[in-house]
Amino acid sequence: MLPCNLPNISTSDFVAPIVTERQPQRRLKVLHVINGEYYAGAEKVQDLLALHSPQFGIDSGFACVRGDQFPLKRECQNAPLESHGLTHPWHFDSIKSIAKMVENGNFDLLHAHTPRSGWAALSAGKLSGRPVAYTVHDMFLGQKAGLLRSAFNRYSIRRLQHADFVTTVSPKTTQLAKRLGLGKSRRMILNGVPSARDLNRQPPGKTWTLGSVGLIRPCKGIEVLIEAIGILKQRKCPIEATIVGTFYTDSYKQEIMNLVDQMGVTADIKFPGFTTDVPSHLKNFDLFVMPSVEPEGLPMVLLEAMAHGLPMIGSNVPGVRDAITHDSDGCIIPNRNPEALADTVQSFIAGKIDWTRMSQNARDGHHERFSAERMAREFSEVYRILVDK
Asked: Residue 333 in contact with residue 314, Cβ under 8 Å?
């Protein structure tokens, strides 16, 4: 018997605890302040939060500071939405209208994901007396830039330092938020996406389809993919490609089309434009390619590819390498290296890389790390911390 040095205590010294019935947590209302100019990664996260948070006692509304695309393309159509034309950080009429939406809708807090929407949320939160959460999705606030962009970044940093809570989506964005002193409290919450429905993915046939999805802009490295396709065609590899998304500008679109023509791959690449039905394209891809040339946050489209059992090839930049586990669910290649991309695709085609194993690992990885339900649950915890302060 083990020695016991406790003093003698009679049973009368113990008081039975009072058992009370646990009260259910009240439902909270979050106003997601949206940039709205595009329907890209940050907007998709906010849309998914509105869809999946009700099961955790959170109801949502949307306030668009630039209501170009989001009102038309959102999936969560039952959440209230208002557009507020915020032309600059000091557009007081727009800020007052957001604050009025907060008060009239009895919202408990505001949540923003981009600097422009963050400006509006912080100002409206101050007017309405509500706390503000902000999510850091990318690295550009900490990057060197031209005069105007640097001024924009400095102003955004000063404002976001006053956010009540800052969440980050990757280890690198966590380091950035800490270095810049963003937010009074911080927590990393990985992005998440829904599981694929009715997925019956088959191994590639004779011709392999390479796919990419997203807002097409210089940082995404589409040039690397196009040059790699040119190399693969010279090697007589049976490939085609589909690049889904809206071009950032008309001038950039012309640059890309000139490169496609120069590489002689016009007949081998499709550009179907923007779609809200990303899964319909993912089902037709054999490999997902993300050759980003600059750091990312945690790209939503990579998580969607994983959910669809798509092996991935991505460049060695923060964000991309946080999503892809090399030699498990995909391959990480050197940055800005079309030759390495072509070599990796050719290794898949030749069977040197096990496509079937990577496909299953991708689905398993999504389920374990990147589900939409997990993301919504973790954000609901942050919301309750803010409201209970």
From this structure: yes
Instruction: Lowest mean pLDDT of 115-124, 136-145, 322-331, 341-350, name the range.
Output: 136-145
Tokens of 70: 């989001």
Angstrom distance (rounded) from CA 22 to CA 72: 42
Q: Regarding beta strands 109-112 and 239-244, do their DSSP bridges make them parallel or antiparallel, or are they unpaired?
A: unpaired
**Given phi > 0 = left and psi -120 to 50 = alpha, else beta, which region is 311?**
beta
> In whole angstroms, what is the distance from residue 231 CA to residue 225 CA?
10
Location of structure tokens 């019956």: 200
CA pair distance 302, 266, nearest whole angstrom: 26
Query: Is the distance from CB of 241 to CB of 266 less than 8 angstroms?
Result: no
Tokens at residue 384, please? Answer: 């309750």
Find out whether 165 and 136 touch, Cβ atoms under 8 Å. Answer: no
Mean pLDDT value across residues 330-352 = 98
**HEC assignment per residue over 263-305:** HCCHHHEEEEECCCCHHHHHCCCCEEEECCCCCCCCCHHHHHH
The C-alpha atoms of residue 248 and residue 253 are separated, in whole angstroms, by: 8
Neighbouring CB atoms inside 10 A of 21's CB total 5
Contact 326, 219 (CB under 8 A): no
The pair of three-digit structure tokens given for residue 68, joined into one six-digit string: 């170009």
Given a contact cutoff of 8 angstroms between Cβ atoms, the answer to whether 133 and 382 are in contact is yes
CA 260 to chain centre: 29
Q: What's the predicted TM-score (pTM) here?
A: 0.84
Region at 131 (left for phi over 0; alpha for psi -120 to 50; beta for the rest): beta
Residue that the structure tokens 């891809």 belong to? 285
Confidence of residue 16 (pLDDT cuts 50, 70, 90): very low
Helix (H) or strand (E) holding 167: strand 165-168
CB 137 within 8 A of CB 113: yes
State the sign of the Cα–Cα–Cα–Cα dihedral 36, 39, 43, 47. positive
Cα 261 from Cα 279, distance rounded (Å): 29
Which residues are paired to 241 by β-bridges?
Answer: 210, 269
Please state, in angstroms and as integers, the Cα–Cα distance from residue 215 to each residue in 20, 47, 222, 237, following that order: 53, 17, 10, 27
Least confident range from 130-134, 143-147, 339-343, 369-373: namely: 143-147
